[in-house]
């Protein structure tokens, strides 16, 4: 399913790519979903048994909080739990949207690079905040000053590798599924479910987990 917007402004034509449109669709869906959950939680009484829906949400929140606790430390759950929860949820929706015929936003490198740059910015911010400017710069000279150029390159390479890992895996799955549909044609409903299970579900969930875990590792490395 292809959705693009063409906007004419200042005498020029701008085409908003399908992947960007899908990002906003996911954001809108998640926003509505958050409102529904919030409404159900507020209506729940203290002595009332939560519904299965709220139990699942609570279980998911607990899983994310445990990941934050194990990777970044218990004291950082309150600060980073909501962001990690949002990141993981967005990535899951973005990677699994291919199951209903939409192009995954994460198959667009501009999307994965943006997410990786957010991680990079947070990493550098907390590195400066917790170590001070001098301590931050000194970290690039460890264990010996001779390795400073390599440390700088390694720090810059983190968002590049993080974004390419997610982009490459999702894009490869999208291209392979397109080839499979073109090859089998009429028999697609019989052949496609198994590749979808691997490329969309297994690989999609795995890449969401890996990206989120690396984000926590990179940021957590600069926390006190």
TrEMBL record:
Its main location: membrane. CDD domains: ATP-synt_Fo_a_6. The chain crosses the membrane at residues 20-37, 80-103, 109-128, 166-191, 197-219. Keywords: ATP synthesis, Cell membrane, CF(0), Hydrogen ion transport, Ion transport, Membrane, Transmembrane, Transmembrane helix, Transport. One of its GO terms (molecular function) is proton-transporting ATP synthase activity, rotational mechanism. The keyword Transmembrane helix applies. It is found in: Cell membrane; Membrane. SUPFAM superfamilies: F1F0 ATP synthase subunit A. HAMAP family: ATP_synth_a_bact. PANTHER family: ATP SYNTHASE SUBUNIT A, CHLOROPLASTIC. This is ATP synthase subunit a. The lineage of its organism: Bacteria, Bacillati, Bacillota, Tissierellia, Tissierellales.
